[in-house]
């Protein structure tokens, strides 16, 4: 089934949000205060296209407003958003009709991002990553969303964007495996330091 394009209000940022990831944002520009007030009034979702070091990219994430954490008398806010799905930007306008904020046409980014790669699952268990409240609970028999795994470890915005934009599930798995290996190395070093400290 081919996705149809849709219009979203767009809030470009140098942050990449995975589906199901929560991210706090500080809202202080007039155009984005207007956007979030519209979101509060209508319940609409909006999009966050990723701004890389090279400029605005064609990938981003549709998000929803989870909560307004704080608001002052100037209308500035701290909000919590949550990722829904990744999209490709087809067109972008700096201002939507009658609005201060921008928007554009997007289409859902439908690529395979599920894995049951046994090497990845071994590292998930080794790192004790929390899935559904159970640490290191994934088995090699079940498939899991690569983005769910990546969301459990620290990746820079550029690394997140790179993972999403990689073509082919095998190449995505290879990149994620390297990131998990690095996290495992850090964990091992931390455990050695704690062990050495306790012996002194």
From TrEMBL:
Domain Lon N-terminal: 8-154
Pfam families, per the entry: LON_substr_bdg (PF02190)
Protein name: Lon N-terminal domain-containing protein
Lineage per the UniProt record: Bacteria, Pseudomonadati, Bacteroidota, Bacteroidia, Bacteroidales
């Amino acid at each position: 089934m081919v996705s149809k394009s849709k219009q979203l209000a767009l809030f470009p940022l140098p942050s990449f949000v995975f589906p199901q990831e929560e991210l706090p944002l500080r809202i202080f520009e007039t155009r984005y205060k207007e956007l979030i007030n519209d979101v509060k009034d209508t319940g609409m979702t909006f999009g966050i296209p990723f701004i890389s070091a090279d400029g605005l990219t064609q990938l981003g994430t549709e998000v929803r407003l989870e909560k307004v954490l704080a608001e002052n008398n100037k209308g500035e806010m701290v909000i919590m958003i949550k990722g829904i799905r990744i999209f490709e930007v087809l067109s972008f306008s700096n201002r939507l009709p009658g609005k201060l904020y921008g928007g554009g046409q997007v289409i859902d980014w439908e690529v395979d991002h599920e894995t049951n790669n046994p090497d990845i699952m071994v590292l998930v268990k080794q790192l004790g990553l929390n899935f559904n409240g159970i640490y290191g609970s994934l088995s090699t028999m079940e498939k899991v969303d690569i983005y769910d795994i990546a969301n459990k470890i620290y990746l820079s915005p550029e690394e997140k964007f790179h993972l999403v934009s990689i073509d082919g599930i095998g190449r995505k798995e290879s990149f994620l495996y390297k990131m998990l290996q690095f996290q495992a190395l850090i964990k091992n070093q931390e455990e050695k330091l704690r062990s050495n400290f306790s012996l002194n």
